[in-house]
Structures are given as C-alpha cells and as structure tokens.
C-alpha cells in the first residue's frame, strides 16, 4: 500500500509540474537550440535576436515579466531535446517553449506539450507536418514547401527545363525535393535525378560529378544552414558546374553567416527565401542596426528573423493570456504584424507563418560586400505543404 501511495504521489507531482502555471508574475520561456557543436551558429543567432527584441521592447509583456532560459540541444538529437523539454517544464516550470532548429527535435517534444498544454514556438524546424503533431505548436520560421515551390515556378519561367535535385537525407530535405519536383513538373519541367545525401556528408565532390555528367539546366539543392551548405556551394564552384552552364538554385544555401567566405564564386547564385539581411524596409534597417550595435560583427539571417518574430509572438501571447497555454494559442491564430522580413501572419488552421518569399541573387553591393539581393517578390505564401 505504501508503495502504491508513493507512486500515486510521484505521478501527481509530475502532472502538477507539467500543467501548473507560474504563480509569480514572471513568465518563463525555455529556448532549446544548439549552442555547441557544428550547428552552434543557430543558438547564437536565436539568442542574439531575442536579446535585441528585449532591448527594443523591454522585458515585460503586458503586466508580466518575461524570462528566457536557454538549453543546449547540441544538434539534431531528439532524445536530448525531449530530456531538456522535460527539465524545463518540470524543474524550471516554464510556461512556453521555443527554439527548435531541427525537425526531429521539435517532433520529440510534441507529446510533452500536448500533456502540459504549453505552447511551443518553432523558430526554424521546417518540415510541414510538424504543426499537425500538436495543437500547441506555432511556427515563425518557414517550411521547405513554402520556399521550394516559388523557386520551381521561377526556374521554369526562366526557361529552365531539366533539373537535378540534391538534398540532405532527412525530413526537410525530402520536403524540399518533393515540393520542387511537384511544382516544376506541373509546369512541364523534368527532374532527371533526385539525389539524397547523408546529413554527415562533408565531401560533395562525388555528387557534383554525378550532376555534371547528367548535364541538367540547373541543380536545386537543400542542406541545413551551417557547414553543409558552405561545403555544397564550394563544391559546386570547384567542380566546374558553374563553368558548364549548370545554374544553381537553392533556398538557404547562400546564408549570410557564411556568404562572405564563399567569395566571388557565389556571385549569381539564385535562391528563393523568406528573408535577406538587406531587405529594404525601415524595420529591417532598425533590426540589423541594433544587432550590429549589440553584437559587433554579427549578421542577421533566417535564424535571427525566426527568433525575433517568435519572440514577438510570445510577447503578444503572454500579454493577452499570461501562462494560460490554451488561451495563448487562440491569441496566436490569425495574429498579423510587420516583421523585418515584411508583412506576416499566423495561419488560423496550420499555425504556420504566412509571408512573402523573395527570389534573390548573390551580388556585390557598393562596398564590395556580398549580399542576397531580392529582385522578385511572391506575396503572402502560406505553408504549401499543408495546403496541397
């Protein structure tokens, strides 16, 4: 009997830790992201953007003080992400979760937030189906369907007829590959090969040789931002694809954090994305200037804007709902605002961000700095992966 009572008591403690809101007037937000290892740039960009938002708007949302607690997931490690989420919910008693660079990490916490009824705001993880796994997910990043379909449509309009797709072999990569193929072949184009490369791939030369041998009009790639994207673009140039007239089409492969290191070989590379650090708006100029002021040498990129807007969404949810997770999610649905990336809103059904997608080309500005120059806008694109 004593053992049974102890077991019941433990279960009640766990449930209380998961479902109980903060008694004090401080609302805690747990941010799970990689702060170490090869993808540590994500945690850095997330944290800087959050701190910039707080510097601009203060640490109070309505009557509530907002506190951020950071946990290092170290990379695509779902077991670690789940353990950290449990720690944040039970020990730290957070009211919101945020961050999530990788799809497997986001999916791992879905059962926990369903039980705890705590919102989780996804700053990046870009597979469409994630938000279907919990009513407590909302996303301020992007999805691969959202940017790959505009890229495919633009490519066809430029007279590109044949493409090889080459993506990292995990859920977002497969989403990008499927999205591009569906849209491109619907237009009349042909994907002549669909390559999937292990996430651990460091040497892309063999893949580039295979692509070159097939002589497509273009290669469409997707890899997670960081060392893989840098190595992929470098291999494209070094293996003669550009010289062979095979055009480069991508999404985040010319990310600002590694763009200068690519050198002049990056000039002319074309991508479709939801943000460029040089987006021409007063709000983006304020945002990038504040990042430079607070963190000299830093640049803004997709991770920055995903975290900045995610923080804005969390503030609005806290202001209206405090620690009431169910009410906060209702507040999020349909919320619209002006972002450094342009006008955005949270879709009522998918809880994913609707936003402009920009066709961009790498150019040098007047100061000789490489930039992702936006030259065409596809307005108000939803998550086409869930709209299909």
Describe the structure concisely for a colleague:
With 388 residues, this protein is an alpha/beta fold.
Topology:
Layout: H1 2-19, E1 26-33, H2 40-57, E2 60-61, E3 64-72, H3 78-91, E4 96-99, H4 103-116, E5 120-122, E6 137-139, H5 144-157, E7 162-168, H6 171-187, E8 190-197, H7 205-214, E9 218-222, H8 227-238, E10 247-250, H9 256-262, E11 270-273, H10 282-294, H11 302-321, H12 325-332, E12 336-339, E13 342-346, E14 353-364, E15 370-381, H13 384-387
Helix pairs in contact: 1-3, 1-4, 2-11, 3-4, 5-6, 11-12
CATH topology of the largest domain: Rossmann fold
**Structural class computed from helices and strand pairing:** alpha/beta
CATH homologous superfamily descriptor of the largest domain? Response regulator
What's the total count of β strands?
15
- Rg measurement, Å: 21 Å
Topology pattern, helix = H, strand = E: HEHEEHEHEEHEHEHEHEHEHHHEEEEH
Strand content: 15-25%
CATH class of the largest domain: Alpha Beta
The first-to-last residue Cα distance is: 55 Å
- CATH architectural name of the largest domain: 3-Layer(aba) Sandwich
Query: Which runs of at least 5 residues are low in confidence (pLDDT < 50)?
Result: 1-24
Approximate shape = globular
Mean pLDDT: 93
| Major sheet description | 9 strands, mixed
Helix segment tally: 13
**Fraction in helix:** 40-55%
Count of spatially separate domains: 2
């Amino acid at each position: 009997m004593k053992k049974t009572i102890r077991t019941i008591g433990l279960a009640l403690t766990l449930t209380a830790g998961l479902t109980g809101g903060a008694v004090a007037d401080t609302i805690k937000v747990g941010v799970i992201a990689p702060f170490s290892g090869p993808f540590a740039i994500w945690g850095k960009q997330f944290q800087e953007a959050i701190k910039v938002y707080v510097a601009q708007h203060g640490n109070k949302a309505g009557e509530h003080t907002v506190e951020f607690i950071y946990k290092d997931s170290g990379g695509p490690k779902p077991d670690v992400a789940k353990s950290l989420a449990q720690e944040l919910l039970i020990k730290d008693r957070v009211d919101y979760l945020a961050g999530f660079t990788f799809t497997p990490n986001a999916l791992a916490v879905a059962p926990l937030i369903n039980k705890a009824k705590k919102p989780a705001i996804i700053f990046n993880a870009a597979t469409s189906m994630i938000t279907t796994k919990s009513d407590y997910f909302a996303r301020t990043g992007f999805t691969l369907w959202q940017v790959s379909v505009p890229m495919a449509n633009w490519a066809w309009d430029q007279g590109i007829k044949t493409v090889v797709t080459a993506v990292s072999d995990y859920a977002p990569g497969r989403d990008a590959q499927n999205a591009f193929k569906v849209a491109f072949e619907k237009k009349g184009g042909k994907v002549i090969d669909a390559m999937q490369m292990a996430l651990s791939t460091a040497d892309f030369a063999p893949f580039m040789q295979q692509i070159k041998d097939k002589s497509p009009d273009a290669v469409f790639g997707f890899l997670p931002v960081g060392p893989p994207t840098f190595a992929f673009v470098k291999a494209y140039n070094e293996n003669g694809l550009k010289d062979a007239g095979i055009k480069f089409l991508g999404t985040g492969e010319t990310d600002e954090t590694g763009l200068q290191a690519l050198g002049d070989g990056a000039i002319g590379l074309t991508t479709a994305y939801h943000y460029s650090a040089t987006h021409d708006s007063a709000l983006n100029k304020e945002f990038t200037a504040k990042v430079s002021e607070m963190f000299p040498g830093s640049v803004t990129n997709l991770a920055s804007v995903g975290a900045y807007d995610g923080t804005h969404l969390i503030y609005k949810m806290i202001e209206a709902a405090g620690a009431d997770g169910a009410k906060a999610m209702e507040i999020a649905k349909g919320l619209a605002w002006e972002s450094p990336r342009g006008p955005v809103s949270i879709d009522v059904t998918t809880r994913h961000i609707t936003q402009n997608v920009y066709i961009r080309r790498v150019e040098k500005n007047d100061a000789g700095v490489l930039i992702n120059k936006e030259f065409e806008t596809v307005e108000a694109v939803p998550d086409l992966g869930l709209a299909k």
